[in-house]
Each structure stands twice: as C-alpha cells, then as structure tokens.
Specification:
With 235 residues, this protein is α+β, with helices and mostly antiparallel strands. The chain has one domain: 4-Layer Sandwich (Glutamine Phosphoribosylpyrophosphate, subunit 1, domain 1). It has helices spanning 4-9, 40-43, 89-98, 103-107, 195-205; strands at residues 17-22, 28-36, 45-50, 53-58, 75-78, 81-85, 122-130, 133-144, 147-159, 165-170, 187-190, 211-220, 226-232. It has a 6-stranded antiparallel β-sheet with strand order 11-10-1-2-12-13, covered by helices on one side. It has a 5-stranded antiparallel β-sheet with strand order 5-6-7-8-9, with helices on one face. A two-stranded antiparallel sheet has the order 3-4. The chain is globular.
Length: 235
C-alpha cells in the first residue's frame, strides 16, 4: 500500500487525479478529485458547488481562452451513485445510468481527449452507497501508447472495499512533452484521518506551482449523508 502524500509530493505533474476508497474507521466512503494545470487557461479555474456535485468555472472570465476541455462538471450525484470524472463524461455516465446502462457501457461512447500529442486519458469513478454497503468502479480510456487510432479501455470494480484503503488513478505518469499517460491498475493507497486531515494532506502534497483545485467528499455508508470540502488555489 502506497502513502498517498508521498505519491503526490514525488510527482510534479500527475495531471488530474481521482482517489476512491474507505476511511480507517470503515464508516465513510471517501473520494478526492484534484486538477492541476501548466497553461494560463488551465490554471484559471476554480471548483464551484452545483447541486449535489461541482462544476469547474473560470476564476477570471476575461482570461478564459478555450472552455472545451476545462469547463465541465467533475462530480454529479444520481440517487445512490456519485460520479467523479476528469471531463464532460460525467454527463455521459449520468445519462447512461439514467437509461439503465452500466458504468462501462455508458463510457463506450467516449474515448481519450482530442488534445494531441498528449491525448489525455479520460479517468472516471462511480461510487455506489446503498443499504449500508459500498462498492465502486474506476475507468481509464487512453490512446494506445500515444497512437490515437486505437482507444484502450480499462474498467476496475471493487466490492466491499477494505477500511483505510483506496485506489488512485491519474492522467499522467509524470511531467513530460508529450505527457505520458497513466499506466497499470489504479494504485493502492492508504486513506488516513478525518475529512479535514485527509483534505489537508492531499492539498499540501500537490505541486505548489501546478495545483489548481481539490474536491473531497466523505459519505456515511450507513446513512448516505455526506460532507464535502473544496479547496481552490484561486480564491
């Protein structure tokens, strides 16, 4: 099991990342989603509450250049499902689940982002809390080692996740040009502390120059009630 803070502090540019798991007490389903940026356009963002989820917004609208890949709803809630993604595929999953499709089926209509030569992977998570039980799934859609003619699709599902354990997936292995896509299964990471301690640990571990925003949610597995924390570098 990896130490999440060390994983983040040792990587100057993991890009966007999703953590899903269970806290040490086993009482809470936990998720974190962060965004980073190297360009002025990417860094000019904040997370804002929208319904039971969040949306990215331009911090300074006058500096917004191309909204297509940076303005979206990373988190939406549908019944007992919490959807967390790094793009507008949040809406694709929401609409698919509404029509009776599975998480994996919903994402069949999508692929990596059209931002060559990086071809940023689309990473997604689905948390399901119902009847005092919690399970989750994660997905990554990415180019075939930088070749956009083929989309590689991977879905991972986790039943009855172990207390204190999470899975971490992010868009890039590290900084580079072009940026190398994430490889392998979601990393096994330790989830420590209460919501404020966990939020602080993640935020302070992210690269100071590149971090933009962080969303954290703890969902009470017994009741479905949740607490949320949002941290924006621009405020």
């Amino acid at each position: 099991m990896l130490n999440l803070s060390k994983e983040l502090s040792n990587n100057a540019y993991p890009g966007r990342g999703i953590v899903i798991g269970t806290d040490k007490t086993g009482k809470y389903a936990v998720t974190a989603y962060f965004i980073m940026g190297r360009s002025v356009n990417s860094r000019n963002r904040i997370f804002a509450v929208e319904g039971e989820g969040i949306r990215t917004e331009a911090f300074d609208p006058s500096k917004l250049e191309d909204p297509s890949l940076i303005i979206y709803a990373p988190v939406r809630v549908l019944g007992n499902n919490t959807i967390v993604t790094n793009g507008d595929q949040t809406d694709t999953v929401y609409d698919g689940l509404s029509k009776g499709l599975t998480f994996e089926q919903s994402l069949r209509s999508r692929e990596f982002e059209p931002d060559g030569p990086n071809y940023t992977p689309r990473i997604s998570g689905l948390m399901h809390v119902e009847g005092g039980k919690f399970d989750f799934a994660m997905s990554i859609l990415k180019s075939n080692n930088g070749d956009p003619s083929c989309c590689n699709r991977y879905t991972y599902t986790y039943d009855n996740p172990k207390a204190g354990e999470g899975r971490f997936i992010h868009t890039y292995m590290h900084d580079g040009n072009p940026l190398p896509s994430f490889e392998g299964e979601p990393k096994v990471v330790e989830i420590e502390g209460n919501i404020d301690e966990f939020t602080n640990a993640v935020w302070t571990s992210l690269n100071e120059d590149n971090k933009v925003s962080l969303f954290v949610r703890f969902i009470d597995i017994a009741t479905g009630k949740y607490e949320t924390r949002i941290v924006n570098k621009n405020n």
